Amino acid sequence: MGDQYEVSEAGVEALTIPSLRWEEPPEGPVLVILDQTRLPAEEVELVCTDVPALVGAIRTLAVRGAPLLGIAGAYGVALAAARGFDVEEAVEALAQARPTAVNLGYGVRRAAASYREAFGEGGAQAAAAAALAEARAVHAEDIEASTRMAEHGLALLGELLPGGGHRILTHCNTGALVSGGEGTALAVALAAHRAGELRRLWVDETRPLLQGARLTAYEAARTGMAYTVLSDGAAGSLFAAGEVDAVLIGADRIAADGAVANKVGSYPLAVLARYHHVPFVVVAPTSTVDLETKEGADIEVEQRPGREVTEFSLPFVQEPGAEAGTGIPVAPLGAQAYNPAFDVTPAELVTAIVTEAGVVSPVTREGLAEVCSTSRWS
Ligand code: MRU
User: Fold this and answer.
1) Torsion of CA 266, 277, 220, 97, to 10 degrees
2) Over the stretch 251-269, which tens digit does the pLDDT of each residue have?
3) What is the span of the domain harbouring residue 212?
4) Which atom of ligand 1 lies closest to the CA of 251?
5) 102-160 and 66-82 helices cross at what angle (nearest 10)?
6) What's the 327 CA to ligand 1 centre distance in angstroms?
7) Hey, is 130 helix, strand or coil?
8) CATH at 212
9) ipTM over 0.95
10) Are residues 171 and 305 in the same domain?
11) Where, in this chain's numbering, is substrate bound (predicted)?
């Protein structure tokens, strides 16, 4: 892997992890993905030459996180078009690879729409070029959105927590690994770090697939910010000790009523935050807001294989169809497991939603619709 460090203008390392890139070697275009199931132990790249490989990478979480899924989905359509595969079949397979993160369908639909429009006018080659251009646009917009969210989020932290010295708790993984830029919630924490206002980032390990311990800590370590990993169950005592000033998380889908689907374990943090009078802030681009989904109860929550809870394995995520019993058992063989990948936090527990187009606070249907209508990409 290349050098992952750059010194930003502020003199603090910028987080630039090449989580995904389009390449055009002589054998044909490919999508190169940093395999997140191997991190932090190994930095291994997967080279996707076809759509089934990319769908597999999405299902096993080699490529993951809402914004990056949108980018990957768009490039997936471009890959199918460039390699002469059945694009409509690819659109279907990619959009259905995971159900909760709305960005996946968003990216796929955008690239597919550009493909179809150009096909009518200029045929297959023009359509393939249009799909790739659209994927690149989705990618570039995500980079810009990340920068804007960091700015809005930093300003909001200043209002909510005057005086700096923030101790921020985060859950799952929301940094450069899930984005073309520096991410969503982690981008805000990084902005606070650069401004000298972050005292500590508390990193929930995020059971069962450890996106916090493996991935957020991997990112945080590269930025020089003070961070501490904790087991998810330790968050309560941390709040009780007065050690958390704000919770910052991302989102996989935000319904029209402001309910937020995010990694399982987010909702308990929102309840804790309310009890302890701590702001609970969600950072997500407007592409994660799904105004078609009227309320939180309508959000489809992905159910993952039980063995992710009952076994430890390397790489961290197995193919959904893989046989049980291949990892290290942490429960008796055959134990039943409940393994929703996400939970839904009602709007009333969310202090603010930070988007690239502005901040929604209090979180209302009207406020959310308004910020989406002012988004450049609405
Ligand atoms: O199952 P994952 O790892 O794809 O879940 C990711 C999350 O829940 C993230 O918190 C969410 O996508 C926000 S990322 C900017």
Assistant:
1) 20
2) 999 999 999 999 999 999 9
3) 144-374
4) 13
5) 150
6) 23
7) helix
8) 3.40.50.10470
9) yes
10) yes
11) 64-66, 98, 211, 262-263
